[in-house]
Amino acid sequence: MTLFAFMLRRTLAAAPMVVLMIVVNFLLLKAVPGDLVDVMAGESGIATVEQMADLRARFGLDRSALDQFQAYLSQLLRFDLGFSFRYSRPIADLVLERLPATALLVTVAVLAAVAVGVAAGVLAGRRPGGRFDRTVSVLSSLIFAMPSFWIGLVGIVLFAVHLRWLPIGGYATVGAPGAGWPHAVDVAAHLVLPAATLGLGYAALYARVTRAAVIETSRLDFVRTARAKGISETRVTLRHILRNALLPVVTLSGLKLGSMLGGAVVVETVFSWPGLGRLAFEAVADRDVNLLLSLFLCNSLLVIVMGILVDVSYAALDLRIEVTS
Amino acid sequence: MIPIERRSFLALTLGASVLAAGAGRALAAAGPVKGGTLIAVINPEPPILTNTVNNHFSVNVVSPNIYDGLLSYDQQMNPIPALAERFELSPDKLSITFHLRKGVTWHDGTPFTSRDVAYSVLELWKKHHPRGRTTFGDVTAVETPDASTAVLRLSRPSAIILNALAAAESQVLPAHLYENTDPRTNPRNINPVGTGPFRFVEWKRGEYIAFERNPTYWDAGKPHVDRLIFRIIPDAASRAAAFETGEVVYGPFDPIPLADAARLRANPELALTTAGYQWLSPFFTFEFNVKSKIAGDVRVRRAIAHAIDRKGLIEAAWYGFGTPATGPIPHYQKAYTKDVAGYPFDPAAAERLLDEAGYKRGADGVRFALWHDYSNDTESQQNTAEFLRQNLKAVGIDLKLRAADLPTYYKRVYTNYDYDTRSGQFSAMIDPSLGLYRLYATSSIAPGVPNTNGAQYSNPELDAVIETALRESDPAKRTEAFHAWQRIAMTDLPNIPLFELERVTLHSRRVKGLEDRPDAAFSSLKNLWLEGGA
Question: What is the C-alpha separation between B149 and B101, in angstroms, rounded?
Fold first, then answer.
């Protein structure tokens, strides 16, 4: 019950923030020069004043900003995300169609990064200054220094062009069966390079954070006490040190999952991954304001939800922390 | 054992290889192989699948596979039959009668008739097609005496309608699916039903668009491949990798970074062509806002024309994919003339002109500064701007670069006219009356409309010439009008056409049947086939 009450309270507390986000997003997008009609007239290569006025009237862009904002709000209150004139489709369809690909990519990347990063961080943190620790430090510095699009391209050249082990990009093989085990294996093969590219940077970060936390926690009294009680070193590391060292990693990965919409844009582009990041990126270039507003809204909701989940998981990891309403 | 002399051995092997070559030719002559899946790439992803309401080039590349035009065009831009088997022009040139192909059906099985033509001309092309409003503006009625005859009635003779009936320009859409709907939001725009060589199968946004062979296509035996896929690969380097692995075998409109073109051209499995883009007649131009104080002086404009090293620019920023231009109409067009004012690269001449105009070098060596606007969506455009800055610096002009994304750039140049100079690509079109007037006609000064007369240049003499080119039906007089157009344009110089652009099509050598027609890059892929089939 306390948990439920806590989540309810946090959700209600987030409501004003969501409203504020909606207003700020709208104002920001209206301040950008050019609109969808400019883009469409430009790419057509030819247009007339009347034609453009006609399109603006149709898209509702001829009304005052206040009118447009009211229309947008009343749409939202009816749980309607609106219509993208760029894609000739309802926005909810577009978002739902792209969401699974991004969710899959980011979740797999973050989980793999947590596993690899935490393991490396714990091993490095157990013997600071040792050979393994130095290797991890050098590697993570290198990975930090390399832009992810470059890592992705090197991956493509090596594993797809030269070795031909993996596909160069896309979500699944075109024309292959769209369901069942063969499909799952196919998608998994397409997922390896983008998830590795995205996850590598995260893993480097988690390794560093975990290492620091492990070193710090190892010096604390309760660890000395645990050792004095004769608990095995492995158990001390896993139960006592790691559990505490995990807190910053949970915070970071929660934030990563929350910002999945924007965070994967580069990787989605390099690997032709049909996700939300690319949709948002193209919507900016197209000045598809309706679509962008909806994407921003979904993103802010996701950040808030992940924030609540992170707080809840703190309580599970560290028994001293309680959720209270 | 019979000893074989060296010479006869040679003769034997030579004979064998000649035979083998002969066999190869015989195989090739046996004609295209049927079947297989052709995987092409298009970037960016087309917004919709008919050019009736959006004629972005990506739409024009994909949609002619679904829809036909009334006509098609050969190498010399002479009309050849498509949905119309033949046509007649009345003596007064005020009506065009199209005799339509019989037995053609839409992909949903409904017969194609003159009603579809009448609807497409009057309700779609004339009202919604971005260029069609001009091209078909003089069509007053379309009569349909029977199911296979359509007669266009014109209010005055038109020289351009018969050059604008290809599938890349004016697509015949199904009246039974479009009537009484808003064509701009008709769901068939993304789930199309046409008469063309390929039937639409599915479109996975951000992944691919899939088509299958239309088994009842009127051009018997075509298309050759069973399936056609356009993959969406947004990153240029990834597209290059897809060509290298063979995952993609055909890509028009510069599918790869020009910087990679030389490397990929050396790949024995790939081939590169710049044919098939003359329909667009693209060129790269440096335009002036003639209403701005300094750029309004024609001596300054001519000086700048002398100051730019076009050959160096093409090599440095475009990897050699271009030809220096002498005017706004490319050299391969019938309407071209080289008899215009020329501006060879000559910094000394440029400096003289600037001195004469009264713009002496200051103490810091600078005569004046000009803003230069451009959209930096390609590396080549960014490099071009920097190259131009260097060229102009040499003659004492400080070109201040101001890059922006496209919508911002459009706003600044075409709505606010808040610029001195700009550079970018422009399409003259194979019939310059379809495209080039936008840069030069007074009537094309349209605040708020991109790709119009952003220079705000106005010359009544040229306006009269442009009108003649649009209306004149005598080919000789029309050509003379185009020549006058080029002469005036290069004398007044509201913009400097720097070079004719070469667009690149990259394809696997397994892909056969590529054409070099002027609109090949915009045509259906019905003639392509794959060596070895699937």
Answer: 9
pLDDT digits (tens, 9 = 90+) for B47-92: 889 999 888 899 999 999 999 999 998 888 889 999 999 999 999 9
A166 occurs within a structural domain: yes
Express each pLDDT in A214-248 by its tens digit.
Answer: 998 888 888 888 888 888 888 888 888 888 888 88
Residue B132 CA to residue B339 CA, distance in Å, equals 32
Exposed, middle or buried, B383 (CB in 10 Å: 0-12/13-18/19+)?
middle
Contacts of A40 in chain B (CB under 8 A): 54
Q: How far is Cα A202 from Cα B192, in angstroms, rounded to an integer?
A: 43
Of B238, B407, B438, the CB nearest to A33: B407
In this structure, is residue A212 part of a structural domain? yes
Contact call for A34 and B410, based on CB within 8 A:
yes
Closest CA to B256 of B500, B60, B41, B46: B41
Helix (H, G, I), strand (E, B) or coil at A140: helix
Q: Which two tokens stand for residue A84?
A: 């993208």
Number of structural domains (chain A) is 1
Inside any domain, residue A222 = yes
Q: Shortest CB distance from A156 goes to which of B241, B407, B450? A: B241
Per-10-residue mean pLDDT of chain B, 534 residues long, equals: 40 39 44 91 92 89 97 87 95 95 96 97 91 88 96 91 91 96 89 97 93 95 95 92 93 92 90 92 96 95 97 95 96 94 96 96 95 90 96 97 92 94 93 90 92 95 94 89 97 97 95 90 94 73
Segment (H or E) for A36: helix A36-44
Q: What is the rounded average pLDDT for all residues in chain B? A: 90
Q: Is the ipTM of this complex over 0.95?
A: no
Q: How far apart are CA B361 and CA A57, in angstroms?
A: 51
Q: How far apart are CA A28 and CA A48, in angstroms?
A: 28
Residue A95 domain boundaries: 91-317
CATH number at residue A126: 1.10.3720.10
Chain A hits for B133, Cβ within 8 Å: 48, 51
Enumerate the residues of chain A whose CB falls inside 8 A of the CB of residue B407. Answer: 32-35, 38-39, 42, 285, 287
Query: Mutate which of A35, A39, A43, A150 to disrupt the B interface (most B C-beta within 10 Å)?
Result: A43
pTM recorded for the entire structure: 0.87
Residue A280 placed within a domain: yes
In the 8-state DSSP scheme, what is residue B60? Answer: H
